[in-house]
Amino acid sequence: LRCSFEECSATAEWLLSRTEIRPLVGIVCGSGLGGLAEMLKDQMAFKYSDIPNFPQSTVHGHAGRLVFGKLKGKACVCMQGRFHLYEGYPIHKVTMPMRIFKLLGVETVILTNAAGGLNQDYKVGDIMIIKDHINMPGFAGNNPLAGPNDERFGVRFPSMSDAYDRELLQLAQGVGAELGFGDFLREGVYCVLGGPSFETIAECRMMNRLGADAVGMSTVHEVIVARHCGMRVFALSLITNQAVMDYDSQEKANHEEVLETGQLRAKQLERLVSNMVTHIEHNNNDA
Ligand SMILES: O=P(O)(O)O[C@@H]1C[C@H](O)[C@@H](CO)O1
User: Which amino acids does the record list as binding phosphate (predicted)?
Assistant: First the structure.
């Protein structure tokens, strides 16, 4: 069976027998945002290539390590590198780490990504709190929950109208305001595409008209699987480039720019996430 309960349990048990850390918070680092994992104290890190049943990172800017440790005293596990559809992985493999998070005891997942800004008010370097998503591959039937459903993870038809936890969203706004990030903290809708080619001008215009504020190639699949198995979700996009919306523009999206902007804003993004983690309490999981 595809990423079966048994297979995920075996991986979780392998990890739990090698670390004493029992994480309640799971973090996923987006392109160029792996510095978050370096903030963890008392680290215990596993290379993806050493973990049974785990996929491998193939994208520049994704280190490929699962790091356990304490963030401001809270036990966390952090994916330093995620998997994308365009790497050629089947969608259930892309999202398998969410099920492993769940079986490790994680209650709250924080996901980050690099994204292109579609909203004309957004600037490069803005941090967008994701309040909702548009799942383009999902429209075509490419959903990570397609196939037989295992009730031990969750129900056949999970709701997604409550995908992004509103309390965590409020918390992020509060923490962001305290840190003085008001000028570049946004809240918006993330649209996922399969990649790896960046979008055409017509595609960007279309997504913007449909209500998307940012476009990327990840996160949504992980969110669906995390919600299916009852974890709370919070997600952030770093706007690393402006999507090209104009035929007169000479700009072209490129991965180097994505990684460079990651470096510029990484410290602030790390502070936002780590300050949030201090406020996340055990057992308030009402997912
Ligand atoms: O893992 P994320 O979503 O941050 O990665 C984005 C999307 C592509 O993988 C890459 C494009 O530059 O960055």
Answer: 31, 62, 82-84, 114, 218
